[in-house]
């Protein structure tokens, strides 16, 4: 099983890359994490935000395979604590599919991406900056795996 994180936004600051890479490298070989960055849709005064979201949705949907189990990160989604995430991770492992976690752009995910999702997860009711979401997500995936593995990291 591979954990694919599809994230709108490119050219992250070095501190984001370092933070994400720290947790990605800790993941086991049988559960690798791959970040796939997608270009954001253009947002200008003369263009529609809906058009930008649709373009981001097109890019995101083109990276999904039919057999992927999709989890949309969405503020109105279900809130999971770390043990619940660990439980979901255990279920995902039993599916025998790759898991695609979707991080939308500044205006959220395209409705088609939300419709394609098998699950919707809210990291927080707070509005978090997208670079920070990447680090939090990578750390929480690692933390959830350590619970499954009986590793002492989650104390």
TrEMBL record:
It is an enzyme of class 2 (transferase). It is found in: Cytoplasm. S-adenosyl-L-methionine binds at residues 73, 104, 123-128. GO terms for molecular function: rRNA (pseudouridine-N3-)-methyltransferase activity. Homodimer. Specifically methylates the pseudouridine at position 1915 (m3Psi1915) in 23S rRNA. This is Ribosomal RNA large subunit methyltransferase H. The gene is rlmH.
């Amino acid at each position: 099983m591979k954990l694919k994180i599809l994230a709108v936004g490119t050219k992250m600051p070095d501190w984001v890359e370092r933070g994400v890479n720290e947790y990605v490298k800790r993941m086991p070989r049988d559960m690798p994490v791959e970040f796939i960055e997608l270009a954001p849709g253009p947002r200008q005064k003369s263009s529609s935000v809906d058009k930008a979201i649709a373009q981001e949705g097109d890019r995101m949907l083109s990276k999904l395979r039919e057999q992927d189990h999709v989890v949309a990160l969405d503020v109105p989604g279900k809130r999971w604590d770390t043990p619940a995430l660990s439980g979901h991770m255990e279920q995902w492992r039993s599916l025998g599919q790759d898991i695609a976690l979707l991080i939308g752009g500044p205006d959220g995910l395209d409705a088609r991406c939300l419709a394609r999702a098998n699950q919707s997860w809210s990291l927080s009711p707070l509005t978090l900056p997208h670079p920070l979401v990447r680090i939090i997500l990578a750390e929480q995936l690692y933390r959830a795996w350590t619970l499954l593995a009986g590793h002492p990291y989650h104390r």
